[in-house]
Amino acid sequence: MKTVRIREKIKKYLYERPRNTAEILEYINSNMRHGTTSQQLGNVLSKDKDIVKVGYIKRSGILSGGYEICEWATRDWVSRNCPTWEEGQPLLLDSEGNVQSFTSLS
Fold first, then answer.
1. Helices (H), 1-106
2. How far is residue 101's CA from residue 103's CA, in Å, rounded to a whole number?
3. Contact 102, 89 (CB under 8 A)
4. What is the pLDDT at residue 84?
5. Domains and CATH numbers, the chain
6. Is the pTM here over 0.85, yes or no?
7. Is 73 helix (H, G, I), strand (E, B) or coil?
8. d(CA 55, CA 69)
């Protein structure tokens, strides 16, 4: 039951624009009494058919150097904002989350 509520909150949060895993984790943990772990969140995001990975963002860590974090969006948001998108293609977004363009991976 807990993962059902997490899925609903994530889909509501992703309705406006794609978000990265860290933003989603912070949102869930600040809006749910018991929150979730990053591992559980990753499982929910990767296994939900209505949520797709649309790209990566670079993060820099003090100790570990740089690393990438996944960007997630709902299939509904993707179909509304870029109907020609195919799964596996990264989306290029501006700072407000608007689609600039997308290119296919080679």
1. 2-14, 21-31, 38-47, 75-81
2. 7
3. yes
4. 79
5. 2-102 (1.10.10.10)
6. no
7. strand
8. 9
In contact, 21 and 70? CB cutoff 8 Å: yes
The pair of structure tokens assigned to 43 is: 């499982």
Q: Both ends of the chain: CA-CA distance in Å?
A: 40
Give residues with Cβ within 8 angstroms of 105, minimum separation 6: 88, 89, 90
Contacts of 17 (CB under 8 A, 6+ apart): 73, 77, 93, 96, 97, 98
Q: Which of 34, 19, 31, 33 is nearest to 69 (CA)?
A: 19
Q: pLDDT tens digits for 1-31?
A: 678 999 999 999 999 999 999 999 999 999 9
**Distance between CA atoms of residues 92 and 100, nearest Å:** 5
Whole-number pLDDT of residue 101: 56
**DSSP for 45-71?**
HHH-TTEEEEEEEEEEETTTEEEEEEE
The C-alpha atoms of residue 68 and residue 52 are separated, in whole angstroms, by 16
